[in-house]
Amino acid sequence: MKNLPMKCVLLLFLLSAALQTNAQAERAVWSKEKANEWYQKVPWMAGANFYPANAINQLEMWQKETFDPVTINRDLGYAAGIGMTVMRVYLHHLAWETDKEGFLDRMKQYLAIADKHRIKTVFVIFDDCWNDTYKPGLQPAPKPGIHNSGWLQDPGKLLHTEPALISTLEAYVKAVLTAFKHDKRILLWDVYNEPGNSNYGNKSMPLLQKVFAWGRAVNPDQPLSAGVWNFRLKELTQYQLDNSDVITYHDYTNDDSHFRVADSLARVTGKPLICTEYMARTRGSFFKNILPGLKERKIIAINWGLVAGKSNTIYAWDTPMKDGGEPKVWFHDIFRQNGVPYDPAETALIKSLTGKR
């Protein structure tokens, strides 16, 4: 460097300082202390994974032509009526890509409706579950008796056939997080639902790594997390645990199994837990045997399903009913579309635990 002109030396110095400043600005994973300090200020909450009953998937929920504030308001009203104060809501990059400003505006509309009902939101960014292809516009009708017949992966197999999509995904993630990085109505960002599902395995690792990096670059006030769900996917699970500000997880098993997992996660990580999926009646996961234990441990409880509708999640994953009849035991969901509970004893329990009068 001693032979470089002074102007070049100064330029290199300024560039080095800028790079160091940028590196410092990128968020580190929250420490156990920071995570627990944040959680101490958060009340215990119960809630559900949410999509309006008339939406078969994320695109039908978020596209301009089918975004339905009236039904969203109705269904969130049912949730608020039993004391639920948090909803987990899936996004989709294609809804943003086809209408960027409109998509962000509809997110604002959703948040305003949820806030009116005193409901916080967990937004989900990517997802490896169900159908691997998608297109904008009119979405398919439900297949009778088939669980989640129209639900969409994001980005699905398109990322593996068109690697250039990654630049669009980066722009999408940063645009959404930047728009809402200080929004107190958002509890946290769930950056990737069940990475490695649909037999992707470790093929999902690069996107998982990137979405955490993009999130840290934006540095939102809210924590970033990706819920652990399959401990056989060892590398993905470890990466999720190591890079989540707070720990989120899925468990559809009975109480003995569920709480062994939860207690182990709490002990190993030392961080607060949020259960972002549970409650599958035919698998032994009920409100009555899971929700009280979650409250006792101050684990925020978000079950799958609120109002039975086009998602067909009253049917079990592996037990289709092709005649479209009502199963004797609903797999998920709490309410019929007219607001009548599937099981009044369940809603009474939820109300008692949430303190809803």
UniProtKB/TrEMBL annotation:
InterPro entries: GH. Keywords: Carbohydrate metabolism, Glycosidase, Hydrolase, Polysaccharide degradation, Signal, Xylan degradation. Transmembrane segments: none annotated. The keyword Ribosomal protein does not apply. Coiled coil: none annotated. One of its GO terms (biological process) is xylan catabolic process. It comes from the Bacteria. SUPFAM superfamilies: (Trans)glycosidases. One of its GO terms (molecular function) is hydrolase activity, acting on glycosyl bonds. Residues 1-23 form the signal peptide. The keyword Disulfide bond does not apply. This is 1,4-beta-xylanase. It comes from Chitinophaga barathri.
